[in-house]
Amino acid sequence: MASKSNWPGHTPLPKGLAAPARRALAHEGIETLEQLAEVGEAKISKLHGMGPVAIAQLEDAMEESGISYSGG
């Protein structure tokens, strides 16, 4: 499936993401899956509000959009 965004580099976070996870990402300035990939899996998993379900949702959305962590 193609990216859900009309603009490359602006793939939105998944809609079903829990509020605590959305707040944690917003606090870090993360609004797109591309920004999430730049920050890296290690840092994301340490954020308060990011549980295993939210991380799985984000990883599924990234995979669906063809985005992967850049190693940060």
Low-confidence stretches: 1-5
Q: Which structural class do you get from the secondary structure elements?
A: mainly alpha
- The radius of gyration computed from the alpha-carbon positions, rounded to a whole number of angstroms, is 11 Å
Helix proportion range = 40-55%
Count of strand segments: 0
Instruction: State the end-to-end CA separation.
Output: 26 Å
Strand percent estimate? under 5%
pLDDT averaged over residues: 89
Largest β-sheet summary: none
Instruction: Please report the number of helical segments.
Output: 4
Shape, per Cα inertia axes: globular
Provide the succession of SSEs.
Answer: HHHH
List key phrases describing it.
50% helix, 4 helices, 72 residues
Report on the architecture of this protein.
Residues 1-20 are annotated as: Disordered. This is DNA repair protein RadC. With 72 residues, the protein is an all-alpha fold. 50% of the residues lie in helices and 0% in strands. The chain has 4 helices and no strands. It has helices spanning 19-27, 33-39, 41-46, 52-65. The longest helix has 14 residues, at 52-65. The protein is globular and about 25 Å long. The termini are far apart. Residues 1-5 have low confidence and may be disordered.
List the helices and strands and how they pair.
Layout: H1 19-27, H2 33-39, H3 41-46, H4 52-65
Protein name: DNA repair protein RadC
Organism: Arthrobacter bambusae
Region (Disordered): 1-20
Gist of the model:
The protein has 72 residues and is mainly α. The protein contains 4 helices and no strands.
